[in-house]
Amino acid sequence: MSNSNWKTYFDKKAETHGASVQSSDYFNEESFFMQRDNTLRWLGELKGKEVLDAGCGVGAFSEPLVANNTVYGVDFSVKSLEYAAGRGLITMSEDLTALPFENGKFDVVLCIGVIQLIEQHEAVLRELARVTKPGGTMLIQTLNRGSVQRKILGLFEKSKKFEKMYAMEELKDLYERIGFEQIDFLKMYHPFSFVTSGAKPGTLAGSFSTSFAIKGSKKS
To answer: What strands, in cross-sheet order, belong to the sheet with 132-143?
Structure first.
């Protein structure tokens, strides 16, 4: 899909489901909250930080961070941003490849469930890296191309909902190229609630994870 088609898609979801997490594309609400809670726990406690939620949707993922941090939400779905603003995010509709922020503005940059929807993922990650502070954290969450479960489901499910999936090694290489270190992974196994973490992507456990998050620290 093009960006304009995705905008229409998520605008309609926001109109239908309102502020509910059903406006996102998780399997269900239980899956959303499980992944959110595990990811934010893995990220660690944040206080007094400048946070960017890139592709924030209705703002449900970064909502727990609002109380103790300044959280900006960027998305191309204006309807979704109305609900994100209601959750306390500072919202704006912008292109993720050309953000209106100075270099190194954010302590933490989140991009959750976005890059599987777009083709220009490298341009987006480079722009997110630009606005991450030296020593700051960039965390991306997406679908695992190496997932055995997704390959099996692909034999039966022919509709192509998502444009892309990613190998963990692929994103690790890109993180390193754009100046990140201390790279780590969080692997998730829908519909199970447990997660595993570690710096090595190419493990047996990794091949069974349906999605993963990757985080790294920007080199000073």
So the answer is: 90-92, 70-74, 50-54, 106-112, 132-143, 211-218, 180-188, 195-198
